[in-house]
Automatic annotation (TrEMBL), chain A:
One of its GO terms (biological process) is L-amino acid transport. Belongs to the ABC transporter superfamily. This is Urea ABC transporter ATP-binding subunit UrtE. The keyword DNA repair does not apply. InterPro entries: AAA+_ATPase (IPR003593), ABC_transporter-like_ATP-bd (IPR003439), ABC_transptr_urea_ATP-bd_UrtE (IPR017780), BCAA_Transport_ATP-bd_LivF (IPR052156), P-loop_NTPase (IPR027417). The gene is urtE. Transmembrane segments: none annotated. The keyword Transport applies. GO terms for molecular function: ATP binding; ATP hydrolysis activity; branched-chain amino acid transmembrane transporter activity. It holds the Pfam family ABC_tran. Keywords: Amino-acid transport, ATP-binding, Nucleotide-binding, Transport.
TrEMBL record, chain B:
The keyword Protein biosynthesis does not apply. NCBIfam families: urea_trans_UrtB. PANTHER family: ABC TRANSPORTER PERMEASE PROTEIN, BRANCHED-CHAIN AMINO ACID TRANSPORT SYSTEM PERMEASE PROTEIN LIVH. The chain crosses the membrane at residues 20-40, 52-71, 77-97, 158-178, 212-233, 245-266, 275-296. It comes from Fulvimarina endophytica. It is found in: Cell membrane. This is Urea ABC transporter permease subunit UrtB. Belongs to the binding-protein-dependent transport system permease family. LivHM subfamily. GO terms for biological process: amino acid transport. Keywords: Amino-acid transport, Cell membrane, Membrane, Transmembrane, Transmembrane helix, Transport. The lineage of its organism: Bacteria, Pseudomonadati, Pseudomonadota, Alphaproteobacteria, Hyphomicrobiales.
Length: 229, 308
């Protein structure tokens, strides 16, 4: 569904990702793990186009998107939930979700989004900034889903969320995948969360994949060695 | 007795000055609405806002001379067409300026101050070259001249009433656009987080351009209305720009209601005090009060209550 080839991303002279290759199958959930500063967020930002890659190609469902602007990539089927959620805090919950509808041309929030996140229906008139962290995370995911993506990118969704909600979130994300058949790429530091939701786990270090394993039969001890500081 | 006035005379003075204040209030609101969008929402310090207003005034002037020379029968209604043309001209210039200048400066808000100040000088000189340094006035159609007697001593001018009605309509339209339309939603998303707005699928460049254009267009309408109560010269805009920034900052950036409330407070204080003391003294007192209140409430009169 998404294919990344020879991706190179740098900030000025400092090269964060030298040469990344990544294939994501339709309906697959891939977790990208790694310690702080290993290039997870940079990878996400270059996939959605906030920080464009200096070389390489990214294609979604066969269309090359690597030269497109961010909003055009959303049109082609990418959606992004950033680290720290970045919801529009002065806008209401409903308005936040509606911003995601821009590329679809629809104006009403489809009912299945509220079905996934009933709490957002209860709070649809509240300002986004007044929601709790967990609710804001749900809102950011709902906003991303509103654009009907083929590939959903999530950057450290568990950051600052309490453990009981993390479990719930893994379940919801799997349900989203099952119902909509989309692919999910999630960057993560919490191993238990990644094991709960992902089909395949990649570990990156200095922008390169150093370990890769399907969820079943994964060597947990080895992965957590990569993550420990 | 208060000073040399009886109580009824004093009441009439208050009423008349209050009404004069309402007209000033209307011009402030029209000016500030555009700036509330450009400065309050987009964060661009547009020092050339007054010149966009004057562009609208000159368009109205051109329209009035053209209509009275060629189709005098249409003269009583020319004003509505002039307003639309004023909006279009200011909007077009706004879009051009955004494309040529402002879009490169979103990440350097302070530089917009210098750049737009330079732009305002260029525009002023252009007006001087094209229209001459002398102030020009438009002739009003008959139905806008005169005043309505309310009591024996209190009279309200009709052109003032027209400006107030116009202000009300424009404010309502801006409110609906910003808070009830899809376009407004996109604008608010972009001004709050430009990067993220792009990542949810909003064409941020286009939105920025249209937003800036709209703010300038509203300034054009303000200029059009301005011709009814004052004459237009190349530097008329400059006299209003400080007051307008004052209104937007005092009201609390990004709050439409705050802008209106602060325009009301400042204009009423100004015009009531102007009757009893000199104009500059009234201005000093108003500014002192505003500075005092802003020290206690740096965020302005009205703000949204949210966690940030």
């Amino acid at each position: 569904m998404m294919s990344v080839q020879n991706l190179r991303v740098s900030y000025g002279e400092s090269e964060i990702i030298p040469d990344m290759n990544l294939e994501v199958a339709p309906g697959e959930i891939v977790a990208i793990m790694g310690r702080n500063g290993m290039g997870k967020t940079t990878l996400m930002k270059s996939l959605i186009g906030i920080h464009p890659a200096s070389r390489g190609s990214i294609s979604v469902a066969g269309t090359d998107v690597s030269r497109l602007e961010t909003y055009q990539r959303v049109e082609k089927g990418l959606a992004y939930v950033p680290q720290g959620r970045a919801i529009f805090s002065t806008m209401t919950v409903r308005e936040n979700i509606e911003t995601g509808l821009t590329v679809t041309g629809r104006t009403k929030v489809p009912g299945d989004i509220y079905e996934l996140f009933p709490v957002l229906l209860d709070m649809k008139g509240r300002r986004g900034g007044n929601l709790s962290g967990g609710q804001q995370q749900q809102l950011a995911i709902a906003r991303a889903l509103a654009s009907n993506p083929k590939v959903l990118l999530l950057d450290e969704p568990t950051e600052g969320i309490q453990p009981s909600i993390i479990k719930e979130m893994a379940r919801t994300l799997r349900r989203i995948r099952d119902e909509r058949g989309l692919s999910i790429v999630v960057s993560e530091q919490v191993l238990s969360f990644a094991l709960d939701m992902a089909d395949r786990i990649l570990v990156i270090e200095k922008g390169e994949v150093v370990h890769e394993s399907p969820r079943d039969g994964i060597d947990e001890a080895k992965v957590s060695r990569f993550l420990s500081i | 007795m208060i000073g040399d006035y009886t109580y009824s005379e004093f009441g009439s003075i208050l009423a008349m000055q209050g009404f004069a204040g309402l007209i000033l209030f209307s011009v402030f609101v029209l000016m500030a609405l555009g700036l509330a969008i450009i400065f309050g929402q987009m964060g661009v310090i547009n020092m050339a806002h007054g010149e966009f207003m004057i562009l609208g005034a000159y368009v109205t002037y051109l329209c009035s001379t053209f209509v009275s020379a060629t189709i005098p029968a249409f003269f009583p209604y020319y004003f509505f067409v002039a307003m639309i043309l004023a909006f279009c001209a200011a909007f077009a210039l706004g879009v051009l300026v955004e494309w040529a200048m402002i879009r490169h400066l979103y990440k350097r808000p302070l530089d917009t101050l210098l750049a737009t100040w330079g732009l305002s000088l260029v525009l002023q000189q252009t007006y001087r070259t094209v229209f001459g340094a002398r102030e020009v006035g438009v002739s009003l159609p008959d139905w806008l001249i005169g005043s309505l007697p309310v009591t024996d001593v209190v009279e309200v001018p009709i052109n003032g009433l027209f400006v107030m009605a116009l202000t009300f309509v424009i404010t309502a339209v801006v409110y609906l656009l910003m808070y009830r339309s899809n376009w407004g939603k996109r604008v608010r998303a972009v001004v709050q987080n430009r990067t993220m707005a792009g990542a949810v699928g909003i064409n941020t460049r286009m939105t920025d351009r249209m937003t800036f254009g709209l703010g300038c267009g509203i300034a054009g309408i303000a200029g059009s209305a301005f011709t009814m109560i004052g004459s237009t010269g190349p530097t008329s805009g400059q006299q209003y720009i400080v007051d307008t920034f004052l209104v937007v900052v005092f009201g609390g950036a990004a709050s439409l209601l705050g802008t209106i409330a602060s325009a009301f407070t400042i204009s009423q204080a100004q015009s009531t005090m102007e009757f009893f003391m000199s104009g500059s003294m009234a201005k000093v007192l108003t500014l002192l009060a505003v500075v005092g209140i802003l020290m206690l409430r740096p965020q302005g009169l009205f703000t949204l209550k949210i966690r940030r």
